[in-house]
Write a structure and sequence with these properties.
Radius of gyration of chain A: 20 Å
Largest sheet of chain A: 6 strands, parallel
Oligomer: homodimer
Shape of chain A: globular
Largest interface: A-B, 39 and 41 residues
Strand order of the largest sheet of chain A: 7-8-6-9-10-11
Chain lengths: ~325, ~325
């Protein structure tokens, strides 16, 4: 568990896209972020107050979150200076970078000296169990995709928000580093040892109130040959009651796999649902989430209408329209 | 790669079952095993000459293979004494135990002093790539199961042997620790990090002659919720041209999962084949392998006949009948 509130470190992000972790925290857990810290030349701005380390600390900030991707695969000297100063002031540091904080001797030394914690959210810190398949109480929804990076995290975060606005009990369950940094906890599933993947998801989504929903962030795709095993572990470890199928219509091929076509929504439904029913015979597909960012408003709406008719399920772009209709569909489950 | 030939360490195995790794080597790679080493009270015997460390070393043994499961999860003092003496005589040590050789300070010290290698085959030693899905040359067969521990390793070892007896090019590809110790190499898939599972199988089964078959040992089952992700990584990383479905008819429920029924052969076929065709559109199910150890000869033969008729595919128990008919079926692929 990463202590909140955060100060978001944007560093010298060349552009807004490089700060997408910080933007995710700003969008989904604004109450967790007290301010932003930018170095000279920073090209990103997540519209929080710019603060010094000392100012944010005074306002109660507990953790400096690296909300930016680094260039060239190193933690630069200018970043280091800030991170070490932060540790000296009493901040924990949290990062989802490939380069681990724990591999940087000077950061480790500073953290030990000052009794602070370095959170590398890409690395599991729990000894997860092997999945036991025992039926859990409460309800769970899992986002499954036609491909990687089609909007599964966004969809489940939006669903979680829509549910809570409707007065329902809901928890977003992060399974990747961005989601973990946004919410402060989760399972970095892609870094878990094979035998423990499904068990890690059981651990992430334990027994709960019967009217509580876990909104489980999906990973990969059953049709993505590099990561499909991770997806199936989510389906079987998650025991979902509901699946939402996520799709991005402009892809020419599977991400990183030229020559591999995307499956249709029907193919994903017909593959995922029987597999999900092994763990939960009552599982249903309850909605479709389409990422229409590459379409005009008119194109998007007519595309969504066509999908809705074709699939017989609510089809929305949660970014354009919110996830209310996906949330409403869960009332019947 | 573990250096051969081996001396098989049976230790103080309480019974034959505890020495199943040694028995596997004896059955499938007898040319790799010079002899067996037993401690007083050993209840196992794999019918090799009993030898001292010195005798086997003189005959050329390079590696002492721990061919026995340990009790109580510790490497006992009586084992240690032998392992250290072996290292001092120039042996490498190979083990598939949960307790790693590398975690034993005295073994590590001895190995460093004498320049020997400790092989913990449960632990990956390679930085596997992320799968790229690129079509590989040569042919590959994968054993898929209705459940765990139904005979997938045995089936692929028997198929490999049958193919080579027919003068065909074939290599058994181990994906678990017993298989790795039997053949001296492979991928301990259950210990690989999630993101690299499929890539590890691509690495294990690279481009080969067009008429060469890799016989890939399966793991888990698409219907076993604890390990299904590992199975799907094998299906997508392996790009199999042929699947053989393995089954053990006496199971009351999935291994370790009371309340989970076994799927039918048809269910496994209809789930595995479309998934396999994502990576290799030409994939076919070519045979059924039934573990009939709990049946009489008559029962077994009539069960196999019924399965063969029902599935329209050769159905054999390779332990009773050999795998010739499963191998013949590959001529058409």
């Amino acid at each position: 568990m990463i202590e909140t509130p955060y100060l978001l470190f944007l560093g010298d992000a060349p552009d807004q896209l490089a700060a997408k972790v910080a933007q995710g925290i700003r969008d989904w857990r604004p109450q967790n972020a007290i301010g932003q810290f930018r170095l000279p030349g920073c090209g990103a701005d997540v519209k929080l107050n710019d603060m010094t380390l000392a100012e944010a600390r005074e306002k109660g900030a507990k953790t400096l979150v690296v909300g930016v991707a680094n260039r060239g695969g190193i933690i630069s000297a200018s970043w280091k200076k800030v991170l070490i100063e932060a540790i000296e002031m009493g901040y924990d540091i949290a990062s989802g970078l490939h380069n681990l904080l724990r591999d940087e001797g000077d950061l480790v030394a500073a953290a030990q000296t000052h009794g602070r914690t370095l959170h590398d959210v890409r690395v599991p810190t729990v000894g997860y169990p092997i999945a036991n398949g025992v039926k859990r109480s409460g309800k769970r929804l899992l986002a499954v995709g036609t491909d990687c990076s089609v909007g599964k995290m966004y969809t489940t975060l939006a669903l979680d928000e829509a549910m809570r606005k409707r007065g329902k009990k809901s928890t977003f369950r992060a399974t990747g580093q961005t989601g973990i940094l946004i919410t402060g906890s989760g399972v970095p599933l892609d870094a878990v040892i094979a035998d423990f993947m499904a068990g890690a998801i059981e651990y992430l989504t334990p027994d709960n109130d019967e009217d509580h929903w876990d909104m489980i962030e999906g990973q990969g795709s059953l049709y993505h040959v590099s990561y499909s095993g991770v997806t199936l572990a989510l389906i079987h470890g998650g025991q979902p009651d509901a699946l939402v199928i996520c799709h991005e219509p402009s892809r020419a091929h599977m991400r990183g796999l030229p020559g591999y076509q995307l499956p249709t929504l029907e193919m994903v439904r017909d593959t995922a649902l029987p597999l999900a029913r092994v763990a939960n015979p009552k599982c249903q597909v309850t909605g479709i989430s389409i990422n229409t960012q590459h379409m005009s408003e008119d194109e998007a709406l007519s595309y969504l209408e066509a999908v809705e008719k074709r699939m017989g399920l609510p089809a929305v772009d949660p970014f354009r329209q919110g996830a209310d209709r996906l949330a409403e569909a869960l009332d019947a489950i």
